[in-house]
């Protein structure tokens, strides 16, 4: 495992413990060159899910990209990181458990909005405004009205 500080390729494992109900292994490592410590996660390799983007191009599902999008929507909001990681885990599990190996980016966006709606309404509206590409203030108000009716 390459050290993120000095790029040396050898480290020793100091501690290992399961996380996420045994789905991943968290390992604390120490670089054998610079002595700094870092954390790695080991997960089971699965069949990749291919995302079909709006322009028709295809790319492998990227868990980190989804998490970054949720983090951006939750910027300066009182949302704990672990809630967003759980949401991404749930979405990823949903995608892995379907028989489809290809999924549209719009479906992933809908899953993300569904999760954000229950976590933080402001983050939900932020995400929806980018995802649904609100054209003007009226589109934005329609979404807010829909949220208010569902309360």
UniProtKB/TrEMBL annotation:
PROSITE patterns in alphabetical order: ATP_CONE
PANTHER family in the cross-refs: TRANSCRIPTIONAL REPRESSOR NRDR
Record-linked Pfam families: ATP-cone (PF03477), Zn_ribbon_NrdR (PF22811)
Lineage of the species this protein comes from: Bacteria, Bacillati, Bacillota, Clostridia, Eubacteriales
A GO biological process held by the record: negative regulation of DNA-templated transcription
Listed InterPro entries: ATP-cone_dom, NrdR-like_N, RNR_NrdR-like
Region forming the signal peptide: none
Function comment: Negatively regulates transcription of bacterial ribonucleotide reductase nrd genes and operons by binding to NrdR-boxes.
Cofactor comment text: Binds 1 zinc ion.
Keywords, comma-separated and alphabetical: ATP-binding, DNA-binding, Metal-binding, Nucleotide-binding, Repressor, Transcription, Transcription regulation, Zinc, Zinc-finger
Cofactor: Zn(2+)
First and last residues of each zinc finger (unnamed): 3-34
UniProt record similarity statement: Belongs to the NrdR family.
Residues covered by the ATP-cone domain: 49-139
Molecular function via GO: ATP binding; DNA binding; zinc ion binding
Protein name: Transcriptional repressor NrdR
